[in-house]
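#lab-general

N.A. 3:47 PM
ok so I finally got the sequence cleaned up, no stray characters, all 460 residues accounted for. can someone with queue access submit it? mine expired

B.Y. 3:52 PM
send it over

N.A. 3:53 PM
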Amino acid sequence: MKEKHLSTLVKNLHVITTAVFLITGLLLMHSCHKNDHHSPFDKVDLELVADGFVSPLGVVAVPDDSDRLFIIDQAGKIWIIDASGNKLSTPFIDVTSMMVPLMPNFDERGLLGLAFHPDYKTNGRFFIYYQLPPRAGGPEEGESWNNLSRISEFKVSASDPNLADMGSEKVILEWDDPQFNHNGGTIAFGPDGYLYIAVGDGGAADDVAPGHVEDWYAANEGGNGQDIEANLLGNILRIDINVSPYGIPADNPFVGKPGLDEIYAYGFRNPYRISFDMSGSRQLYAGDAGQVLYEEIDLVTKGGNYGWNVKEGTHCFNAANNDTLLPSCPDVDNFGNPLIDPVIEVINAANPMGGGKALTIIGGNVYRGNSIPGFQGKYIFGTFGQTFTAPDGELFIATPAGPGPWKYDEIDLKSFPNDLGHYLKGFGQDNDGEVYLTVSTALGPSGTTGKVFKLVRVKK
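B.Y. 4:20 PM
back already:
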């Protein structure tokens, strides 16, 4: 998610002088289809699982035999839905009092991520990602830090499997954030047993602000996305949490080379939701929020550079005027690494070319369930909304096929014929591979309109 203001969304349309921009955009407008009645993807719906949340951001299945689902609520609590589908009355963990105060109308801070250790069934270890009040100092003279991001380990209570031991917190990793937005947020264990952490570029806009360092690309001011030495911002990290406080996997791409050892991949703006395919390829997918022109889904590989802020999607980004494009830009970085294009590109609602409806892309999951024939192996994702004034997120499906761009279809939902009727804030998956959505009708972390839905086949 990001800071795009309402004024940006209502800018007058103007002529784009670069012909490539126009042609590419027109092609992209035809890459998404509203399914007709003969589509194999139209016999699905959303089934309400639980409600009464503030701002649910994701669903995480616990790796034990309990069939419980854990719901991340941005306001500071993690809730349990038991095997019978009941939302327990007491949260599993509550870090509200430890967090930086959230802005109710819109905020990108809070309790953002949860990951259970692969051996949770025997060791009771789990990890959360959340924001605390800022430490002293700032990114430059006269500027203060906005908040402190923290990855912490906790253990489950020895006496109650539905409660965390609040006295067990062990701080794993911390970093200072210069602005409130672009925090990434997902933490997840990969098939290699290492913990992956999605971190945004630090916030503000264009990767240009106090705390956004200079990089190798002189045409654009900034930024943290392309720098790999000054800080951890704009990257996906990979660490070994079986070493105290954490270790560095020996094959991380910058071990023994210039670059911070924790970095697994870089060149991201705000990789808010990431996920691993739970079978098949086991690949890492990242939904990276764009500025005002394009949104993207990336297939993340070790050492990969995903382009921000040299590029936004497949296009040459212009930090000085972010609603136009530069006529050209490099296709490799200062190390000779290629700038990797996304596999899915979506037009942003603020794109002056028109045709876009996405405020922010929300990365989802590869469907590995059995209840919806035809969905197996396909990637499900969505958009937060189409405007800041109405809860109208949308849901899409794509077939993974090579380096991209992949075509995608809007999923027709029986009970939601036009859009989701909610802001889409996250996804999740149970141990059987079924997919869940987390939504709210409130733009920010306020109220109790948050819900968890399960994607289901329509019963005839």
